[in-house]
Amino acid sequence: MRKQGPGSDLSGLAEELRRCHEDLKRARADLDKQKGEMNEKMEALLTLKKSSAAKETEMQEEIKNLKEQSQKDRDELEKIKESSAGGGKTVVDYGSNSELQEANSRLRERLARMMELMMGDSRQSVAALQFQLEEYRERSRKDLQEAQRNSKDRLAELQRAQGNLKAQQEEVSRLKKDLLTCSEERDSAQLERDLLSNRLKHLESELDTEKSSHTDRSREIRGLEDKIKTLEIELDEEKSSVELLNDRITRSRDQVDQLRSELMQERSARHDLEMDKSALERQLTLRVKALKRQVDESELEVERLEGVRRKVLRDLEEQQELQEALQAKVSAMESEIKRKGLSSHRSTIGSALSSEDEDGFYDTSLSTILNESHLQTSNC
């Protein structure tokens, strides 16, 4: 049982090292899988960025169309005013005013819808980026913890393997001591055999000289011969044991050399794993910083678009108030014209011209607002 113990221990140690190699292979496969998932996340982010750019282009095109429609409405209003002035009409056409109101209402509604769409898309993009960032952070944290746990497990297994190797080395040292003891016993037996042989020769010489009177010595010689045979048998057995011990020591040395080689390979693989883990941590840190920077830029863009929307709504409300004031003034002028009759025709014409100047100021203000909106959209 004692002869089979070191061999079984060495087999268990080799099996443990083989499991360590398999665990390292699985850890590397997990790292490759994480890198693939990271590349997929980057592709998804690029796709989201392209779709956001396409939506922004569509919004700019819609704004351009709205501006063109507003310009057409203003041109039609100018034509109506010119036709009214050329025909000598003094009463403002209520249909034109209603068309102007409808055009302004359509423009305001379109601008409001456009801004709501832009704000909704921006909020959705920011929410999606934040969700992806949180998900990526959580997954990175879990992967890092798993890698740390695996590294600790590998380190513990390596320490156990080193402990087993140390135990095997101690076993080899003990076997060497046993071999040395056996060698000393063999030398002692050989010396005793030589002494017995010399004594036998001496007794044989005495036997030749004193054959007749040494019967007891003959029995002693036979006993000594039997003892010598017994010692020779024991010596042969000791030689066989020594040969077995030598073979066992040789096999133990080979196994120790193999274990040392596997231990060096395990240390090299562990070093590679540490390097891969460090590179992955640096890459994850850079990805997280990039995603945070994108989220900050998106939030700033949302705040800026919100300010533009509020400014456009304030300008539209001011223009609506100005239009209502002009409408009241036109109604007052019509009432005054009906009262005064033909004698106040010239003064009414002058008032109409003044109203046209104010309408021109209104058109100029609306054009200025639209130009500012266009410039702000271009800056976006």
From TrEMBL:
Residues 344-354 have a biased composition (Polar residues). PANTHER family: CINGULIN (PTHR46349:SF5), CINGULIN-LIKE PROTEIN 1-RELATED (PTHR46349). GO terms for molecular function: microtubule binding. Residues 53-82 have a biased composition (Basic and acidic residues). Pfam families: Myosin_tail_1. It comes from Mugilogobius chulae (yellowstripe goby). Residues 49-102, 338-357 are annotated as: Disordered. This is Myosin tail domain-containing protein. Residues 129-283 form the Myosin tail domain. Keywords: Coiled coil.
